[in-house]
Amino acid sequence: MTESGDPNFRRVLLKLSGEALMGDQGYGIDHLVVRAVADEIRDAHALGTQLGVVIGGGNIFRGIRAGDLGIDRVTADHIGMLATVMNSLALQDALEKRGLDTRVLSAIPMDRVAEPFIRRRAVRHLAKGRVVIFAAGTGNPYFSTDTAAALRALEVSADVLMKGTKVDGLYTADPVSNPDAEIIRRTTFSDVLDQRLRVMDSAAVSHCMENDMPILIFNMQESGNIVRAIRGETIGSLIADESYPARG
User: Fold this and answer.
1) In angstroms, rounded to a whole number, what is the distance separating the alpha carbons of residues 216 and 15?
2) Which residues partner with 53 through β-bridges?
3) Distance CA 218, CA 133 (A)
4) CA distance 49 to 227
5) Residue (of 125, 68, 70, 60) closest to 92 by Cα position
């Protein structure tokens, strides 16, 4: 972090879970949570950082669990992609009500509600200071929104992929069941894959490892954490090559 509080990252891809948007409801979209997330993004945008966002759809439908309902996996994944569009539109509305120029770009063509995902268009929107929400995952089944976030981060040349979760970061053990668990402030892509740390799916981590895209895992539920992370403060857990600069 600089003394003036300038952002440490020029362009950020923020990955949010769909479950985070349902609050305590257990299902659907809690508009109070969406407003709180929009406030956090507004404050981060005010730093001058260009922001792209990918939101999951697990608060509405999770394709990977649809086998229990007897739904074909490909069909279920497409339903899940549409759920991410619903979440994206809800967040867009909240951001625009806070004065942020926002665009939803969908990997599945639906020009009545969103622009098609075109890489050059996305980069141009970001360069103009617009918040870009990438919806519908990759547009293909069998790929998670984690993988979609990794791909979009690489495509728009983000400086970091930041994943907001319900926990403070990676731990040596489950902090809920093991009070002696310690947070891992920094680790490598190889360690995450070798130790099967369940922070993102292996495809997403592999894409980031192969292309030197650092991943920051942080607690989205703690107010102000997006701004702290963008300023380079030591929060959450950083996954990066050993040569990546230290934080703080």
Assistant:
1) 10
2) 14, 133
3) 19
4) 10
5) 125
**What confidence score (pLDDT) does residue 6 get?**
63
Residue 200 pLDDT greater than 70, yes or no = yes
Other CB atoms within a 10 A radius of the CB of residue 84 amount to: 28
3-state SS class at 240: coil
Model pLDDT for residues 130-158, shown as the tens digit of each residue: 999 999 999 999 999 999 999 999 999 99
Name the pLDDT band for 4 (thresholds 50, 70, 90). very low
147 membership: H or E segment, kind and range: helix 145-155
Between β-strands 215-219 and 237-239, what pairing exists: parallel, antiparallel or unpaired?
antiparallel
pLDDT interval class at 20 (50, 70, 90): confident
Question: 98: Cβ–Cβ under 8 A, 6 or more apart, which residues?
Answer: 38, 39, 42
Q: Per DSSP, what are the bridge partners of residue 125? A: none
How far is the C-alpha of 19 from the C-alpha of 69, rounded, in Å? 19
Q: Are 83 and 61 in contact (CB under 8 A)?
A: yes
- Res. 13: pLDDT tops 60: yes
CATH architecture of structural domain 11-239: 3-Layer(aba) Sandwich (3.40)
pLDDT at 1: 41
- Per DSSP, helices labelled H in the chain are 31-45, 73-96, 119-127, 145-155, 189-194, 202-210, 225-230
Q: What angle do CA 135, 51, 117 make, to 5 degrees?
A: 35
| Residue 150 dihedral angles phi and psi, to the nearest 5° | -60, -45
Task: For the chain, give every domain's residue range.
Answer: 11-239
Q: What is d(CA 13, CA 11) in angstroms, rounded to the nearest whole number?
A: 7
